[in-house]
Amino acid sequence: MWVAAIPGLLVAAALLAWAPPLPGSVHRERGSTRRALRPHLGALLLVFLVVTGRAGTVISFHTFIPVLLKERGASLQQCAQAIGLFIFTGAVFGLLGGHLSDRLGRRRVTFWSMLLATPALLSFLHLRGSAALPLLALGGGMLHAAVAVNIVMAQAVVPEKASVASSIAMGLAWGTGGLLPTPLGMLADRFSTHAALTLVACVPLLAALCCLAMPARQKDEG
After folding, report:
1. pTM (predicted TM-score)
2. Is residue 133 part of a domain?
3. Does 101 map to a domain?
């Protein structure tokens, strides 16, 4: 299976060897990263917590939706359709969230998307059959609505170190959120998949609370 990674590695090597630097990138990244980030650690931490909560919820549902549906008697095809719907709706809402953030503000879009994700996901978990799928789609949409918005929020906190801020919001936070399915699997083994997903469906509420603590910034409030 590792052979499949060879084309990507070759392209990455070529880009590193021959791609010219972006104009002005050296100037923007000049200076001490630690010194630039230190005054903004509180705001960056809040963005990190929001994205980690979102990522943990998304990855957990990606992982355990098929398990839950199989326990309920669904076929593999139905499980794949549910996951596809969850992801596709997230992509559509991601575009919509970016548009709304320009009109309403990044913090507001992030807060409401996280707040509304929990009731949609809980409703999906407590319904059966085709009636549950629209709620799963809505929950996936809400979870993904501010993915790109949060990256911009992190960049706005430290504009002179935008690439570092992006790596915190997208790389570190999503990687940390990816650890959540492990303890979630332990809970599912001990209790049930339904109970474990019910617990993780409440995580976006904590992310919404973090949004309330974020400092208001120029366009963040529309």
Report:
1. 0.79
2. yes
3. yes
Could you tell me how many residues make up the chain?
222
Residue-level pLDDT, tens digit, the chain, 222 residues: 445 556 656 665 665 566 555 454 444 444 577 777 777 778 888 888 999 999 999 999 999 999 999 999 989 999 999 999 999 999 999 989 988 988 888 889 999 999 999 999 999 999 887 788 999 999 999 999 988 888 888 888 887 777 888 888 888 888 898 889 999 999 999 999 999 999 999 999 999 998 888 766 544 544
Domain CATH number, residue 199: 1.20.1250.20
**pLDDT of 109-154, one tens digit each?**
999 999 999 999 999 999 887 788 999 999 999 999 988 888 888 8
Query: DSSP letters along 56-109, please?
Result: HHHHHHHHHHHHHHHHTT--HHHHHHHHHHHHHHHHHHHHHHHHHHHHH-HHHH
Range of the domain at 50: 45-213
Please tell me what DSSP assigns to residue 167: I
d(CA 107, CA 220): 6
| Residue 31 placed within a domain | no
Distance CA 24, CA 169 (A): 23
Number of domains the chain is built from: 1
Cβ atoms of 64 and 197 within 8 Å: the answer is yes
**How far is the C-alpha of 39 from the C-alpha of 128, rounded, in Å?**
49
Report the C-alpha gap between 215 and 42 in whole angstroms: 10
Asked whether residue 77 is assigned to any structural domain, the reply reads yes
